[in-house]
Design goal:
By secondary structure, this protein is of the alpha+beta class. Helix content is 37%, strand content 27%. The longest helix is centred in the C-terminal third of the chain and has 64 residues.
Length: 211
């Protein structure tokens, strides 16, 4: 799953402070939950000293981009439908400049743009670097089941039915085997009884003739 792989990469990046991994953001949120819009822009080691400006925009379907959040040395939230519902989740080194939308609604579906502008402070010159991340967010009423989990459940039920049938067949086979063994034992016992009776009768006959 993308979510699991992204979480592992983020945890790894958090443990190794010198490592930065650019991973995509989740694109589906459930109504009423908090949604983190992931925006990571890694810098090389020699680019540590830089002034960073971050701008977040939101565009509804068929609409225009509108600013919703900005970081320019300080955090600033623009008046919008998200007023009071945006939290800054950026890192101190400004490589992770993510935000979280609290209590998302169905109307929060749309395209989110994360613009990053960096001015690097070299001795000779101060170059600018810009990058953008687009997040197509869809908000749903309820969490849908992952296709892989659905297939896994179906396979589990098929396996359970197969094992049940196999167990029934084994039980019937064992029952018949035991029954046949008991019948054979009874037949042998009966045959042995008849043989012993025949031998005894013959012995009695020979004894009477001898007398």
């Amino acid at each position: 799953m993308v979510w699991a792989s992204s979480l592992v990469l983020l945890l790894w990046a958090g443990v190794c402070s010198a490592v930065c991994v650019e991973v995509p953001s989740e694109t589906e949120a459930v109504q009423g939950t908090d949604m983190k819009l992931l925006c990571i822009s890694c810098m090389k080691r020699e680019e540590v000293t830089a002034s960073t400006v971050v701008e977040w925009f939101y565009r509804p379907e068929g609409g225009k981009d509108e600013p919703i959040y900005e970081y320019r040395k300080t955090n600033h939230e623009f008046p919008s439908r998200f007023s009071g519902r945006i939290q800054w989740n950026g890192s101190k080194d400004m490589q992770d400049v993510s935000i979280t939308v609290v209590n998302v609604t169905l109307n929060d579906s749309g395209i989110y743009t994360c613009n990053i502008t960096r001015e690097f402070e070299f001795e000779i010159h101060r170059p600018l670097f810009t990058s953008s991340r687009l997040i197509h967010l869809t908000v749903v009423e309820e969490a849908g089941e992952d296709f892989t989990s659905v297939i896994s459940e179906i396979m589990m039920y098929i396996l359970l039915v197969f094992l049940t049938l196999w167990l029934l067949i084994e039980m019937v086979y064992c029952y018949r085997k035991v029954s046949k063994a008991e019948e054979a034992a009874q037949e042998n016992a009966s045959a042995n009884g008849l043989n012993q009776q025949s031998i005894k009768t013959r012995g009695d006959y020979l004894a009477s003739v001898h007398v």
